[in-house]
Automatic annotation (TrEMBL):
Keywords: Membrane, Transmembrane, Transmembrane helix. The keyword Membrane applies. It comes from the Bacteria. Pfam families: YbhQ. The keyword Transmembrane helix applies. This is Inner membrane protein YbhQ. The chain crosses the membrane at residues 12-32, 38-58, 70-91, 97-118.
């Protein structure tokens, strides 16, 4: 068994996701130490948006469906981090804690509610007439 398979079994995440986590962590720590956290956060949110748009486009093309599924995994994994970074960036502009709390609730609970409400109903089984 290869080492990256062992890591995936132990952590439940592929090595690529773990390395992306580490790169994001290093970028945020670097931005914090260099007092460039807003710029680093903006770049990370823009990168997330670009990956999200690429995921939406590639899922519609049958030949690129596997790429779209891979990008969907990445966007699902990093949604919470991108939401927190976006909330941080908005907090630099908006100074009302109640509005920030409402925005945070919408950003975190919104996708769950949409996925619950957008589920397709189970297919109806038609009875055969005798």
């Amino acid at each position: 068994m290869k080492w990256f398979n062992r890591i995936q079994i132990a952590t439940g995440q592929p090595c690529l996701h773990i390395s992306l986590h580490l790169v994001m962590l290093v970028a945020l720590v670097w931005g914090w130490r260099e007092r460039a956290l807003v710029e680093v956060s903006s770049v990370l949110v823009a990168a997330y948006a670009a990956v999200f748009i690429a995921m939406l486009l590639t899922q519609r093309i049958p030949r690129l469906r596997r790429t779209g599924d891979f990008l969907e995994e990445i966007t699902t994994t990093y949604y919470f981090g991108a939401a927190m970074l976006l909330l941080f960036l908005v907090s630099r502009i908006l100074h009302n804690n109640l509005l920030l709390a409402c925005l945070g609730l919408v950003m975190l609970a919104g996708p769950a509610l949409v996925s619950l409400l957008a589920k397709e109903p189970p297919p109806r089984i038609e009875k055969k007439r005798s």
